[in-house]
Amino acid sequence: MSMNISVIGAGAIGGYIAARLASIDVRVNLIARGATLAALQQHGIGLQEGDQPPAFFSVNAVADATSLPSQDLIIVAVKEPALASVLPHIQALMGPNTRVMTAMNGIPWWFTAGLVSGQSIHLGSLDPQAALQQAIPSSQIIGCVLHMACSNVRTGVIRHSIGHRMVLGSPGQQPDAGLHHIANLLNQAGFEASLSDYIQRDIWFKLWGNMTHNPVSALTHATTDQIINDPYTSQLVVRVMAEAQQVGCRIGCDIDQDPVERNREALKLGAFKTSMLQDVEANRPLEINALLGAFCDLAQQLSVAVPCAESLFGLVRLMDRNRNH
User: Which residues fall within 8 angstroms of residue 269, CB to CB, at 6 or more apart?
Assistant: First the structure.
């Protein structure tokens, strides 16, 4: 069964997914703009595996999603600060049976849909006017947790460094036939796609590490090994992770691993620069709300005290507000 697929976001992750799908002759629409759009239209999307020369694959690159028909699958691969700006593209591509897959870091706007806690919670830090919630029904959403590292080599060329894993799931629903078909297609394209019965748990476990090292590195310009080897920053990381474990227990996202052990695992990465530190150095918008703000928002509505996380959020938010002034 052929599918109409559009990828919104031609950065490292969106470009990598598009290239993998195009490599098995799937027609992929890639929404882009500016120099990236021109490069994609002229050369296709370039994919470099490790240090190998890039291979180029044909994609249908367009600037305006309204030029396309409704899609079977929309893959949203932008960072959280860009979500509001791409909503018109999503709406233009949606039909009654369209699935919307969020290939993003941190807590997504739909995270509380079908949550085990049973509470009705709106994450205003991610979707202030509930525009995303109203435009995209949770029944059409596919959550996606990515375990891979990619970067932009140059305009229109993506380097894949490590990892192929993708975990997919529908909030509040068991995987259906459509989700199985999408997972199979991704596996054919070279990913290791698996299905989750409770995708929020998988999101939470990945968040558990990202919500600490990312903001601390943005504040200090330190690599993860420096953060973990300093007794005070390491202690802060452990305390925030312990708070996240408490919130996780309330929503069916229990984490049994010890935070200290998780830090030891992160040390294996060596002098690793987090994505947020890379964004600071490149003067790009930061995913503060997806990694910390929404967590504090959720904890407050569940009446769980998270003073360390709130302090860290306040500090990185102030840094972000003042860094361009």
Answer: 224, 225
Residue 167 CB burial class (10 angstroms; 0-12, 13-18, ≥19): buried
Which residues are paired to 176 by β-bridges? none
Q: What is the pLDDT of residue 51?
A: 83
Token pair of 210, please? 């990202």
The pTM of the whole model exceeds 0.90: yes
- The CA distances from residue 253 to 107, 109, 111, in Å, are 13, 17, 12
**Superfamily name and number for 5-197:** NAD(P)-binding Rossmann-like Domain (3.40.50.720)
Distance, in Å, from the CA atom of 172 to the CA atom of 178, rounded to the nearest integer, reads: 15
Structure tokens at 208: 């558990």
pLDDT tens-digit map of 36-45: 999 999 999 9
- Count of beta carbons in the 10 Å neighbourhood of residue 138: 18
Q: Which of 72, 63, 25, 22 is nearest to 45 (CA)?
A: 22
The CA-based angle 102-304-267, given to 5 degrees, is 60
Asked whether 219 and 319 are in contact (CB, 8 A), the reply is yes
Amino acid at 32: A
Q: Does domain 201-322 have CATH number 1.10.1040.10?
A: yes
Q: Is 206 known to be catalytic? A: yes
The pairing of strands 55-57 and 192-195 is: unpaired
Q: One of 79, 206, 268, 273 is an active-site residue; which one?
A: 206
- pLDDT, mean of residues 205-216: 94
Token pair belonging to 254: 């229990």
Strands (E), 99-251: 99-103, 141-154, 157-169, 192-195
Listed in order, the ranges of the chain carrying CATH 3.40.50.720 are 5-197
